[in-house]
Design goal:
Layout (H helix, E strand, L loop, with lengths): L6 E2 L2 E3 L5 E3 L6 E6 L2 E6 L2 E6 L9 E5 L4 E6 L5 E4 L4 E5 L7 E12 L8 E5 L3 E5 L3 E6 L6 E7 L2 E3 L2 E3 L3 E6 L2 E6 L2 H4 L14 H12 L8
Parallel strand pairs: 1-8, 6-8, 11-12
Antiparallel strand pairs: 2-3, 2-7, 4-5, 5-6, 7-10, 8-9, 9-11, 10-11, 11-14, 12-13, 13-16, 14-15, 15-18, 16-17, 18-19
Length: about 220
C-alpha cells in the first residue's frame, strides 16, 4: 500500500481498561469519571473538572501509534502534545499536594501554573522532572540512550538539576548534563516540521520511520 504521512489520532485507555480510538470518535463526551469529564473537541481531548474527586484516584492513559500525534488538556489546564509512538498516564483529577504524570516517547507540555501543587513528570527509571509552571519538551523514546529535556520558558529541575530557558538537559543513566539548546529543532515536530541539523543518519531514519509508520533497514 501507499505510505501515508502522520496525522492526528491516539488510543485512550480508561481506568477500567476500556480502549477508545480517538481517530474515529465524534465531538462530545467521551467518558465521565472520578472528578472530571473527558470531552473531544475537533480532534483534541480535554478533561473538564466536575468537582472534587472522591475516594480512589483513577488513571487514564493516551498513547499514539507510529504515524499519529495528539493534543490533550489535563484536568488542571496543562496542555500536552504527544509525538508519534508516545504515551502519557495521568489521573482524571489532581488530588493531594502534587500533580504527577508519567510519559514515554516525546511530549511537549505547557504546564498550568499552580504554586500550591507542583507538577512532576516521570519517565520511569530514567528521569524525574520537577516543573515550576513552564513550557518544555521531553524526548525519551525507549530506544534512545539519551533522554533530552529542553526548556522554552519557566523553570524545571531534571533529576535534581535546574535548567534555564534555552537550555537542555541530556540524561544518560539518570545523570543530567546541561548545555545550550536549539529550541527550534527541539519543537520542530510540534509545528509539523522535521529538523535534522547535525543529526546522525540513524536518528534521522528513526524519526522518519515513526512519522510514516514504516520500517527502515540500513545495510552497510
Amino acid at each position: 500500500g501507499e505510505i501515508q504521512p502522520g496525522r492526528n489520532g491516539a488510543v485512550l485507555t480508561l481506568a477500567d481498561g476500556t480502549q477508545l480510538v480517538m481517530d474515529s470518535l465524534k465531538n462530545g463526551l467521551v467518558a465521565a469519571q472520578n472528578g472530571s469529564r473527558a470531552v473531544l473537541r475537533n480532534g483534541q481531548l480535554s478533561y473538564d473538572p466536575t468537582g472534587a474527586a472522591t475516594g480512589n484516584i483513577v488513571y487514564n492513559s493516551i498513547s499514539t501509534p507510529k504515524g499519529r500525534q495528539f493534543e490533550l488538556t489535563l484536568p488542571d489546564g496543562t496542555k500536552v502534545w504527544l509525538n508519534a509512538a508516545s504515551s502519557i498516564r495521568y489521573p482524571t483529577a489532581f488530588a493531594g499536594n502534587e500533580r504527577k504524570v508519567e510519559v514515554n516517547g516525546e511530549v511537549y507540555l505547557e504546564v498550568a501554573k499552580d504554586a500550591s501543587k507542583p507538577f512532576r513528570l516521570s519517565v520511569p527509571g530514567r528521569a524525574e522532572i520537577d516543573v515550576l509552571g513552564t513550557s518544555f519538551n521531553v524526548s525519551a523514546y525507549e530506544n534512545d540512550r539519551v533522554l533530552n529535556a529542553t526548556l522554552l520558558e519557566g523553570s524545571v529541575k531534571v533529576n535534581g538539576m535546574k535548567i534555564m530557558p534555552g537550555q537542555q538537559a541530556l540524561v544518560v543513566d539518570k545523570v543530567p548534563e546541561v548545555s545550550k539548546a536549539d529550541i527550534n529543532k527541539a519543537v520542530a515536530w510540534k509545528n509539523g516540521l522535521f529538523c535534522f541539523k547535525e543529526d546522525e543518519m540513524k536518528d534521522v531514519l528513526e524519526q522518519i520511520a515513526r512519522w510514516y509508520d514504516v520500517e527502515i533497514r540500513v545495510e552497510g
